[in-house]
């Protein structure tokens, strides 16, 4: 598949990145709603549709739409790689000064894109989050698991992670470049983006029900996202063994005292005391050792992650034309 960029990097103000997997049912409706909104902006834009290895007619439909819509660019992934990976492919290739990512299924309203752009430009923001004000259209189970998820990630990744912010957001070129420079493999953008520390704003919207097609996030994928979120931002689970080991060790000590006193003052079955103490001792030692291993694996993990430990917001020496060497 040949893919010549239809727009030049210098001119494009806005890129809209849309990961899609088997979305043939919503695609025409998406195009119908998105295109007038983007045309109404009056700035050069591109739409980067990432076909995440769809097995339905998504690719064929995209090709058809491309004929009459020069701003539409299609990136086809060879196989299904998942929502976040498809997003990465789109962000890596988008050329706009601002990049909006949006779901294909019209749960995020395209009509909010101009608001995001206006806010970012007026307040000089690098990130504008789409915040779901209302999830009434989601099932009770989805809302409950989402609530749990945001509580957990805010605890692990910090309060800068806005609750109820999905993957509908605007990023400036600087924010996109910062994301592209990260070495992370399994990316969870809703945690990585706040972690970059750029000035940010919010646009609230109501989460609409899916007009057609099925959610591509069944329970298994939701769990996968949660596990990636936790392990991507914290080695805390590895410490659980250390704590368990410590607690087990204390309990074992208590039980050992009890066993010995039982042996001294009562008639116990011969062999019970030594056997029980042996079992307790080995169990406690093993847990403590696993915990210790966990501590080291945690250090290896952060070393291998190799993320930058800081981002420079601005540097007067670099921005003032007469930069002088500093010691
Ligand atoms: N998606 C994708 N690859 C996948 C799964 C989903 O590109 O493997 C896209 C999907 O087409 C949609 C977005 O990611 O544009 C969000 O998926 P979905 O609407 O199924 O998730 P939900 O809204 O149910 O959380
Ligand atoms: Mg959806």
Would you write up a description of this structure?
The longest helix has 34 residues, at 272-305. The chain has helices at residues 27-41, 58-67, 83-93, 113-123, 140-157, 173-180, 189-195, 219-233, 236-265, 272-305, 316-319, and strands spanning 14-20, 45-51, 72-76, 98-101, 127-134, 165-172, 200-206. The radius of gyration is 26 Å and the shape is elongated. The protein has a seven-stranded mixed sheet with strand order 3-2-1-4-6-5-7, with helices on both faces. α1 (27-41) links the parallel β1 (14-20) and β2. 50% of the residues lie in helices and 14% in strands. The site of uridine-5'-diphosphate (UDP) has 16 residues, from β1 and α3. This is Glucosyl transferase.
Note the gap between the termini: 52 Å
Beta-strand fraction estimate: 5-15%
Relative helix content = 40-55%
Indicate the low-confidence ranges by residue numbers.
1-5, 321-327
* Sequence of secondary-structure elements: EHEHEHEHEHEHHEHHHH
Please tally the β strands and state the result: 7
Ligands, deduplicated: uridine-5'-diphosphate, magnesium ion
Broad structural category: alpha/beta
Choose one word for the global shape: elongated
- Number of helical regions: 11
Rg calculated over all Cα atoms: 26 Å
Average pLDDT across residues?
87
Strand order, biggest sheet? 3-2-1-4-6-5-7
